[in-house]
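User: Could you walk me through two proteins back to back? I'd like the raw sequence and the structure tokens for each, with a short line separating them so I can tell where one ends and the next begins.

Assistant: Of course. Protein one, sequence then structure:
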Amino acid sequence: MARYAMVHEQFHYVANVIEWDGNTDNWQPPAGFYMVEDVEGVATPGGTYDQTTETFVPPPGGQAP
């Protein structure tokens, strides 16, 4: 199992962080979301995902765990 962030396709905010094996045959994210593996363990709900730099950005006024 690995840590994954559920990211909104249009606005790139992190909606949730889950433990998942990455197998889409077992589970798929809801429509409008995609999953990004969080190898460094810094993604947090309310933050965003920058596709250009492939990094997670903490929410305003907060810090990533």
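----
Protein two, same layout:
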Amino acid sequence: MSNGKRTAGFSKTSLIKGIQCPKALYLSKNPPAIEIKPDPDLEAKFQTGREVGILAQQLFPGGTIVPFSDLSATEQIAKTRELIEAGAEVIYEASFAFDGIFIKADILVRTGTTWEINEVKMSTSVKDPNYDDAAIQYYVVTNCGLPVSKVSIVHINNKYERQGDIDVQQLFTSEDVTELALVRQEALPDIITNLREALQGDEPTIDIGGYCTYPYSCEFVPYCWRDIPEDSIFSLKGRGINKFEYYGQGIVRLENLPLDKLNDAQRFQAIATINKEDTINSAGVNDFLESLWYPLCHLDFETFATPIPPFDGTRPYQKIPFQYSLHIQKKEGAEPIHFEYLVEPGDDPRRELAEKLLSEIPEGACVLTYNQTFEKGVLKNLAEAFPDLADGINIRIENIRDLMVPFRKRDVYRWQMRGSYSIKEVLPALVPELSYDGLAVSDGMMAMRVYHEMCKIDDPDKVAELRKGLLEYCRLDTLAMVKILDELIKIL
């Protein structure tokens, strides 16, 4: 349904991009002369969002979908009009256009003489940008002549625990955002006018700012930030100074910062980087090493988390382990023995993984992790899921020690770590000959994505290739721990 006006067109997504930053909208219409690499994690997120949207349709059964893949935008709008005039009660992906803005309402429900818009999100709460989303939908639909009595954000209920088939009424919860949608849509005409003007001229002269990453990360950061040096004020980790405030004063490089204005952690990083200084606190390293014992088991999990819980006893976004790597040293300096596990595609991995892990980690062994909060969380979930294994799992939890500790406390700090104690920064600084570069899988997000891909294909050769990449990556995580520990021992 459209008023027939011919103007520069927007989708709801592009309009929200422009609200965040007009320059990002301009660049999306006029790509810069620099390679902007596609973000596979973002595409995976979109696919998951589509799956959540389809499942949410079951909240309002019996509706008719207006497909976007088989019809042009004009045909989608016409199909929506046809369904409304035919008396449809529920329409999925209902399509409208007003003033050159094209939107698709996830779930449109007739309530007597008015309609309700239900926008589906895969988050576990309503976030501020969702109100703009709702406002745009209200603005377009009502200006197309359809009376709207309510706009709701339907999102995931992270307290839901699956037992049997998915209960959509429990998985989703809904929040009425009509009042805020009404308020925000009043500003839309001016916003749209300003964005159209921005698209008519040259590239907007908008400098970098907090809007480069909030509320959404912008794909044009490599372009807009291309002149920011590596050791800039933006490389400072953690909370502290307002970096954009100093940037606005023309202070970009670390060496130009007034160091007395920095907190202890950021001052430490800045001085170490400027002077290329390393720090070693032998007493702290010794205390850490004294807390370990043998046999020593270097443990790392890979997990996935989805908004739709895949197995009985799981909740939305619960971290479910599908893989682990284990390097066991029987005594100090011993050649580690490697064990590993990777579930077969599609199976619930938890029971088999837990049993295999308990058989491989001796009951009295020291379990070394990198960021113990993560591994402990995974193990606690396994103990809750399988009470008969809980005692054995809890003993291993009690024996966990964290290799991150001496780096978080900065008992060992190399200036190349750039203020971080992530293993991805610590490893190249301490063990430069060991690297994730060149691996088919090079980080945890990629591992999760590859696992999901492996679960969706039938080609055994492709599955074998993906498994190989996952195993190599996870193995390197625990081998890296072995090598980092060796370096700590050498320090003393």
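The chain has a mean pLDDT of 95.

Let me know if you want the two compared in more detail.
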